[in-house]
Every structure is written in C-alpha cells, then in structure tokens.
Amino acid sequence: MNQSTQSRKRKRKESKLETEKCSICLTKLRKYVASPKNCRHLFCLGCLKRWSRTQNTCPICRRRFSRIEVLNQRSKKLVRVLPVARADQQNIQLNRIDVFLMLSITTRLMSIMRTLLYDI
Ligand SMILES: [Zn+2]
Ligand SMILES: [Zn+2]
User: Fold this and answer.
1) CATH of region 21-85
2) Which pick of 2, 81, 91, 93 has the fewest CB atoms within 10 Å?
C-alpha cells in the first residue's frame, strides 16, 4: 500500500512538470510566462505573442482571447496585460485586398478581351 501511494505521488509530480512546458516550442517555461485571458494555459511570452498575430484562440483549448496576461511563473503574480490584434479584424483587411485584386484582374481581362475583339 505504501508503495502505491509513493508511485502515485511521483506521477502527479511528473504531470505537473509537463504543464510547465510551453506547448508551442516545447521548452521549459522561463521566469515570465504568458497566458490567454480566458483560460489558464501557459506559454512563453514570445511564442504566444507570435501565435496571437495569426490567431486569437488558445493553441490548446481553442478558446478565443483578446488579451494576453503576463505572469511571474513562480508567484503567479500578474505582471502586465497585453492587448491582441484580433484575427477577425485581420481577415476583414485581407478580404479588402482580395476585392482590390479581383478588380485589377477584371480590368486587365477586359483590356485583353478588347484587344482580342479588335484583332477579329
Ligand atoms: Zn514557447
Ligand atoms: Zn487554453
């Protein structure tokens, strides 16, 4: 009985160590860690910042977040809160570029067709 309690303790310790790794770059977390506002998952500040430039959902649980909390890993004290450029706003900008591209392609196609018509 004593032995099983010991192994259970060791297991719990191992899983705790796992959660202290950044799941984006898989290295051990440093003194300051970053966490999405809406969940408690921890990442390196650099990793989460880079991630938030393309997506505003947590890499693990897929919850949307609009702010990144920077914490001291040991004390879990909040150091600062960073705003995130929301991914859906970036998508709207991309759509605008698409429309612009489409327009310039159509204009080019029309001028090609015009020259073709003249050839006939
Ligand atoms: Zn990382
Ligand atoms: Zn999460």
Assistant:
1) 3.30.40.10
2) 2
